């Protein structure tokens, strides 16, 4: 106020006034500085700017200008106001009144004396036991951030720093493209938008059933032609057969070529792969569409256009037949599906593949009495799962002020489909009913334990132990024999009660563990373990856009391999099954390929490529993998070529390939490093 009494300056205002005075060379009037500082709500920076502009603060007529850190009553208030008391407040109790206890009165009077707080550096020697973190340790995150929030922060930082323009095709020198031993070959498209499709083709090669089926396939010839008399077959140039032929050539090179990478631009054109160009779209959607088209083409070509299948018998390589459990197994009552969609995040209690399938295909009939069970009538050799993550963020917990921690979705290295099959419907139902009862019994025991250890939101056992501690360490006997006996009896009673409670809790824990273990293993019986499927490939998205942000895991010759663009590295199985990549961006592993379990010898056996290669026309050796390997070795430096062995080269054969297909020229021929679009000139 301009005319009223000015409230004294606070310690902070005194410090700010000294700063302003120093800014003006020590000639600033104290009252002037205080008035100016309060005019700008104690904002030192604004007050300094106003001072330099010649403002003396005298035009401030606000009625509350002389009161520090206060605002007019009609201004907006952040947070709830304190309501007026609903009843008259009681008078302040005079704790210093003499009530006969002089010692207590003096203590209370001393505690109520005005003592000013003094802040100063501690004079005590530093004690490392009280340190929050070691003095030489780097602080990695702000205080109060959970691990989930830290990971989310790093993911957002990575997404903001990513530049789409930097996603270019990097071409390696020929000497760096040498395949080492049995390392898987990487498939690389020039366009990053079809990287997902290249990873699908890459993963399918490592499914033994697919690799062998494609290797044995040859296009059907004219009616009445005996496949034993055929010595030459011209590659198809269009239609579904051309796509399967392209896959066969690609797979043969992945198995036998000595280059560490293959360009698959021609394959992408043959399969008409759509480009994933929008970072806002999920790559899983484009992946599923490409996989479904590919599976349909391959399965129908093997049935209707195969030299070795003149009877056109159906082979369920990819498609499973499913329907209601009480339906007839015919075309009218069942459907075919090659990719199973699995929703993640809708139920926090269901966070693994088998539980998710059970929740969808085998719901609890007590909760859904009118629901019809879906069952699998015929299982394929290969089954894929599309993991779709819930885009809705986890619920906010108001009690702790942050979201619940995310957890990685679990998928096993082997899964049994028997519990979802039509043939095992009755047995699986009985097992599940028993399983649910066991889990309910365990839940009841856990509730019993909670009631035993807690009462009115208090820890009963802790209270009993506190009482025991009192009688053991605090209670005084005053040399009174009766008091001594009383303390002894109470100690014995409390000890017996505590021991009994602990024993009861331990018994309950043991019973709960046994019930849960029995429930988790009740479906693991020989009758429900006839259809075993092993994990073959996993495709992962880390949440960002670009070729290096999609990668795969594949199993080859008993080892797991990770492929990121052209980089192929061996990884442990635990990394494959527990990859947390993309967890905090709602991404991660999104496509799983399983196939029927096989022996290790069958998995590692080489596919019969020679039956397909040797019937190709006998004029041009350029199309054979062996010739391409030979030409590749001639183009690398001699000192490097002599160190390379070619264990995968097929044996010499009088039958060699004829006119190369577009795919063979572009992706299998050895091109010079300057271009991957033009075929290499192999003429003399």
TrEMBL record:
Residue ranges of domain USP in the record: 185-597
Natural source organism: Trametes pubescens (White-rot fungus)
Basic and acidic residues bias locations: 674-684
PANTHER family, A to Z: UBA DOMAIN-CONTAINING PROTEIN RUP1 (PTHR39597)
GO biological process: protein deubiquitination
Matches recorded under InterPro entries: Papain-like_cys_pep_sf (IPR038765), Peptidase_C19_UCH (IPR001394), Ucp6/RUP1 (IPR055335), USP (IPR028889)
GO molecular function: cysteine-type deubiquitinase activity
UniProt xrefs under Pfam families: UCH
Residue ranges, annotated region (Disordered): 642-684
Protein name: USP domain-containing protein
Coiled-coil residues: 484-518
Domain of life: Eukaryota
Keywords, comma-separated and alphabetical: Coiled coil
PROSITE patterns hit by this protein: USP_3
SUPFAM superfamilies: Cysteine proteinases (SSF54001)
């Amino acid at each position: 106020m301009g005319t009223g009494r000015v409230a004294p300056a606070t310690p902070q205002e005194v410090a700010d006034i000294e700063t302003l005075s120093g800014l003006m060379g020590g000639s600033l009037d104290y009252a002037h500085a205080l008035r100016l500082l309060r005019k700008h709500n104690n904002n030192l920076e604004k007050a300094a700017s106003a001072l330099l502009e010649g403002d003396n603060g005298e035009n401030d007529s606000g009625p509350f200008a002389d009161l520090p850190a206060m605002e007019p009553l009609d201004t907006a208030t952040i947070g709830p106001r304190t309501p007026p008391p609903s009843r008259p407040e009681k008078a302040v109790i005079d704790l210093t009144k003499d009530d006969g206890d002089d010692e207590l009165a003096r203590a209370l009077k001393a505690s109520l004396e005005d003592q000013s707080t003094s802040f100063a550096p501690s004079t005590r020697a530093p004690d490392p036991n009280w340190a929050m973190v070691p003095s030489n340790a780097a602080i990695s995150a702000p205080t109060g951030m959970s691990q989930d929030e830290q990971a989310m922060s790093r993911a957002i930082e990575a997404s903001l720093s990513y530049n789409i323009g930097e996603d270019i095709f990097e071409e390696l020198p020929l000497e760096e493209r040498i395949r080492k031993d049995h390392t898987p070959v990487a498939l690389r498209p020039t366009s990053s938008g079809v990287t997902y499709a290249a990873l699908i083709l890459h993963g399918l090669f490592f499914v033994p059933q697919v690799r062998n089926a494609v290797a044995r396939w040859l296009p059907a010839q004219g009616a009445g032609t005996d496949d034993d008399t055929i010595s030459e077959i011209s590659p198809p140039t269009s239609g579904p057969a051309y796509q399967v032929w392209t896959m066969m050539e690609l797979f043969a090179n992945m198995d036998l070529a000595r280059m560490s990478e293959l360009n698959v631009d021609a394959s992408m054109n043959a399969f008409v792969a759509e480009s994933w160009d929008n970072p806002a779209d999920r790559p899983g959607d484009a992946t599923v569409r490409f996989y479904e088209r590919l599976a349909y083409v391959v399965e129908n070509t093997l049935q209707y256009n195969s030299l070795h299948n003149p009877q056109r018998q159906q082979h369920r390589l990819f498609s499973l037949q499913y329907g209601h459990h009480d339906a007839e197994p015919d075309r009218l009552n069942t459907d075919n599906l090659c990719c199973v969609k699995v929703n993640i995040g809708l139920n926090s209690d269901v966070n693994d593949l088998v539980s998710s399938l059970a929740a969808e295909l085998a719901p609890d009939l007590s909760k859904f009495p009118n629901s019809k069970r879906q069952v699998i009538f015929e299982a394929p050799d290969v089954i894929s799962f599309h993991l779709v993550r819930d885009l809705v963020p986890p619920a906010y917990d108001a009690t702790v002020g942050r979201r619940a921690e995310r957890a990685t979705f679990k998928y096993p290295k082997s899964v049994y489909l028997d519990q979802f099959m039509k043939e095992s419907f009755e047995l699986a139902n009985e097992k599940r009913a028993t399983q649910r009862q066991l889990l309910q019994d365990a839940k009841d025991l856990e509730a019993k334990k909670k009631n035993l250890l807690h009462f009115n939101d208090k820890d009963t056992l802790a209270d009993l132990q506190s009482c025991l501690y009192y009688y053991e360490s605090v209670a005084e006997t005053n040399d009174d024999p009766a008091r001594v006996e009383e303390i002894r009896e109470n100690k014995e009673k409390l000890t017996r009660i505590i021991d009994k409670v602990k024993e009861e809790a331990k018994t309950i824990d043991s019973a709960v563990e046994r019930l849960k273990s029995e429930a988790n293993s009740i479906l693991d019986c020989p009758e429900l373990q006839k259809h075993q499927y092993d994990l073959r490939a996993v495709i992962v998205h880390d949440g960002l856009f670009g070729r290096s942000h999609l990668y795969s895991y594949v199993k080859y010759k008993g080892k797991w391999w990770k492929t990121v663009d052209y980089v192929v590295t061996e990884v442990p199985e635990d990394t494959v099954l527990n990859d947390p990549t993309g967890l905090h961006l709602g991404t991660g592993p999104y496509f799983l390929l399983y196939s029927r379990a096989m022996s290790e010898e069958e998995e590692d056996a080489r596919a019969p490529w020679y039956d397909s290669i040797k019937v190709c026309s006998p004029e041009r050796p350029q199309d054979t993998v062996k010739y391409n390997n030979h030409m590749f070795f001639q183009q690398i430096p001699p000192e490097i070529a002599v160190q390379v062995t070619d264990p995968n080269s097929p044996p010499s054969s009088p039958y060699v390939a004829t006119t190369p297909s577009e795919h063979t020229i572009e992706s299998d021929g050895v091109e010079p490093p300057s271009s991957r679009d033009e075929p290499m000139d192999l003429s003399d």
